[in-house]
Amino acid sequence: MGAASNGKIRVAMIGTAHGHAASKIRALRVLPEFEFVGICRPDADEPKDGEVFQGVRWMSLEEVLGDSTIELVAVEAFPGRNLDYARKCVSAGKFVHLDKPPGADLAALRAMFAEAGRRKRVVQMGYQWRYHPGMQLAIEAARNGWLGQVHRMRASIDKPIGPEERLELARFRGGVMFSEGCHLVDRAVALFGKPNNITGFLRHESRLRDGLMDNTLVVLEYERAMAELSIASFQPNGGSYRKLEIVGSNGVALVQPYAPLRLMVDLKEAAGPYKAGPQVLQPAAPPGPAYAPDFEEMARIMRKGEKPSYSVEHDLLTQETLLKACGMLG
After folding, report:
1. What are the pLDDT digits (tens) for 42-71?
2. Are strands 243-248 and 150-156 parallel, antiparallel or unpaired?
3. Strands, sheet with 95-98, edge to edge from the N-terminal-most edge strand
């Protein structure tokens, strides 16, 4: 596989339907490590109009897979399709950035990761908040014992979802928990690991008769802790009330809202860099466009051999936990 003559990583995108696709196109067009080659839209029901698509090169699937100079492919198709396209990319020898959730077939995901390992390629999952400074600091406080014995994580990401997107998500038993709550499952697994017990509450509350599970709660039980993860699709200004809260015997770390960045830490006794009592921090956002940290890490993996921040084992455990929570895996 060859690289661009300028040393940049040549990258293409497959699929345009994912909610993160537009922001990732913008990022890949401006980040200096990359040369954005074009977009493949293999499914006619995915978007092709809009400002972000102006001036792009439209490519066939065969062109993307067959061009040996394209080293990285970002897969941004609907969840029902994305895993199959990612598998094709891995088989063609590409590195892959795969947006969430990675399909609904755990065995197929496991097989794809295994093939990527044999080919010495990396599949990077596109979970949105892995590089969120506030969440990183909150989890750091928990892991370092600054919050004391951690016994609870609570997190929510309510957001309104339009009728067309509802129909697509209703294809999956887990509904909004499967499509959006996967971000929270990823953070809970990062903090606590594998749960001892998983309970999902999946309800359809809308008057729309589309069958979407649109009011959902998942409880992950650990030996001495629980994670409560919720998402519903009704709150008009849900973004302002999203939160991730980690509670321990010495205090709490609360990220709310997610943007603009705000972290509140309230400790009984001073620990680590934090004083006793409540304090509010506004961590600096990462420089560059949205999703820059994800792609910058991938560039270091590809060019410098850096080890990924998240292992294949973590990604498989996250998906297994998500599918069980959504009643999509026995």
Report:
1. 999 999 999 999 999 999 999 999 999 999
2. antiparallel
3. 58-59, 34-40, 9-14, 72-75, 95-98, 123-125
Q: What is the DSSP letter of 150?
A: E
Residue 327: the pLDDT is 97
SS3 202: strand
Residue 157 CB partners (closer than 8 Å, separation 6+): 180, 181, 183, 184, 231, 238, 242, 258
**Rounded to whole angstroms, what are the CA distances from 19 to 173, 256, 284?**
20, 22, 24
Using 50, 70 and 90 to split pLDDT, how confident is the model at 2? low
pLDDT of residue 161: 92
Q: What is the tens place of the pLDDT at every residue in 159-181? A: 999 998 999 999 999 999 999 99
Q: Are 44 and 81 in contact (CB under 8 A)?
A: no
Residue type, 225: A
Q: Is the overall model pTM greater than 0.90, yes or no?
A: yes
| Residue matched to tokens 């961590």 | 283
Q: Is the pLDDT score of 250 beyond 70? A: yes
* 125 vs 110: CA distance, rounded Å: 13
- DSSP-derived pairing of the beta strands 123-125 and 251-255: unpaired
How far is residue 287's CA from residue 290's CA, in Å, rounded to a whole number?
Answer: 9
Among 290, 312, 287, 328, smallest CA distance to 96 is for: 312
**Distance separating alpha carbons of residues 71 and 44, to the nearest angstrom:** 25
